[in-house]
Amino acid sequence: MVSAVQLLVIAKAPVPGRSKTRLSPPCSPEEAACLAEAALACTLDAVAATPASRRVLLLDGEPGEWVPDGFDVLPQRGAGLDERLAAGFEDAGAPSLLIGMDTPQVTPALLVEAVEALTAPGVGAVLGRATDGGWWAIGLHRPDPDVFVGVPMSLPETHAAQSRRLAALGHRVEHLPVLRDVDRFDDALAVAAAIPGSGFARRVREIRHRHR
């Protein structure tokens, strides 16, 4: 069954020196980009396996062969992340569930759970907290720049600020399970341990072995 909800992934192209820079050290810029590509591949695979009316990659950078079939690629626009999120929902349309590239452990089952929560009667939005204080997923029924513009992003208080903004706009928010973002190498190790058979975990093991 095809869901009426779109699935959006917001990501940076995995380019050395531009993606997952907080993995360095211990990773080199090339190793950090390698892990970014592996995390993005796992994320896109999960989205591809989830019923959706449309799958969209909101991309900062140039697409490559790593973009799977079945995704529409739209360029990010705007200055800060808050503006890029607002523009992404506006460009893609809604209802939509948006996730980032920092949670390669996400599964189709978890995405289906999020979509079902968004489409439940009376629910205006869904929000998934990340362990670093940010969020890993947000779902809306319609584009609304006021949801994002001015909300401080990529900070320990981002999830709390986003929750307050949604409440102030009158949205009844359903909260999703908490996931760990891959920001630093200890995050990569922890997430890899949770998904040991994944391509992401294999890349983490290769890099760890190289640095011993």
Task: Report what the structure shows.
It is globular, with a radius of gyration of 16 Å. It has 212 residues and is α/β, with parallel strands linked by helices. The longest helix is centred in the first third of the chain and has 20 residues, at 29-48. The chain has six helices and seven strands, in the order E-H-E-E-H-E-H-E-E-H-E-H-H. It has one domain (6-210): Spore Coat Polysaccharide Biosynthesis Protein SpsA, Chain A. Strands 3-2-1-4-6-5-7 form a seven-stranded mixed beta sheet, with helices on both faces. Helix 1 packs antiparallel against helix 6 and helix 5 crosses helix 6. The model has no long low-confidence stretch (mean pLDDT 96).
CATH class, named Alpha Beta
Largest sheet: 7 strands, mixed
Number of strands: 7
Bulk shape: globular
Strand content: 15-25%
Under CATH, the homologous superfamily reads Spore Coat Polysaccharide Biosynthesis Protein SpsA, Chain A
Estimate nothing, just give the exact number of structural domains.
Answer: 1
The assigned structural class equals alpha/beta
Count the DSSP helices: 6
Order of SSEs: EHEEHEHEEHEHH
Q: Level of helix content?
A: 25-40%
- Which residues form runs of ≥5 with pLDDT under 50? none
**Strand order across the biggest sheet?**
3-2-1-4-6-5-7
Note the gap between the termini: 48 Å
Give me the CATH fold name.
Spore Coat Polysaccharide Biosynthesis Protein SpsA, Chain A
